[in-house]
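DM from R.C. (forwarded with permission)

"hey, sorry to bug you on a friday — could you get me a structure for this? deadline for the figure draft is monday and I only need the backbone to look sensible"
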Amino acid sequence: MRGSKAVKKAFAAILIFALILGALSAPLVICYFRGSTAAENDISARDHYAGTIDTFIIGGSQVEYGLDPRIIDPAAGTSSYNMSCVWQNLYGERILARQELAQNPVKTVYIGVCLDTLTRTEDNDDGQGEIIMLPRIRGIGNKLDYLLHSGQLSDLPGLFYFYTHHGMIRLLNILKGQDYTILHFENRGYVPYMLPNQDMSFDLGGEISVTDYRENGITADNRENFLALIRECREAGAEVVLFATPLSQVFLEYTDCWDAYLDEVRALAEEAGVTAPVMDFNLWKGRAEIFDDGTDFYNWNHLNYSGSQKFSRIFADAIKGAYPEEMFYNSYAEMFAAEGR
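My reply, with the result:
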């Protein structure tokens, strides 16, 4: 009996502590979520353009840093928004697409496919996806839905620290009259990355992506969510087109798994009923002459600002139909043979 009472008292003490901690931290978390000091917290920007977007671009960080609607729209005659995000997983892409398709006359959704997104597991994102994605999702119910599908208990301490810490910083800035924003509506979701290229031998991003693919392939969960994302976009009346951003030459030459990976992506597209060919811009015949590792990339698999401006112009021409299928190699083996590598 005494042991039972002790357990009940301990449980009650923990519960009271948790409630007090929650009450004290809630204003800071709300302060962060309602702010726009993080580029990923772009609900206000999406609301600004609600009802006008006819083209959505969605994917992970390669797409977020790689495509600038300010260049694409005048050239292609579109009204686009880049909904991509660092560490964004496919379930998060589904929630965002669902929310924005419901309030915009979207005709086409361009889904960026990349090696790390399709092979990522809950064990190798360290909670970064949850930290960055939650502010972008509307509604408490949808945030909880995302956490239940994508989060782990081990992520909660990191979430709590990040939101309260940055919420406090924003609150202090507001009180000092020094609040700032790095979110620009006219960017339409694009986040420029201006760092010059660093020594890629110290960047393990590409190595991790390849290791994950060789160990996991396209995981069952990612496959299911990828197919569901395409299905939900098509059910909303939008055409779906799959594409891949340019990768650094050193990353392309790092592994020989590209054709196997592309075959899987093409098979998934066919299974989902996508009729447009996969536009892999690593197979675009002008890539080697246009993109340079030292000036257009900041690591193995991400374009920097210079590279994004080039790619955005190429992407705009491609979606206008300026490049026929003959402008793309059929495989990586064909591309390497043609380019003498």
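R.C.: lifesaver. The longest strand covers residues 239-244.
me: no worries. The domain at 42-132+185-338 is CATH 3.40.50.1110 (Rossmann fold).
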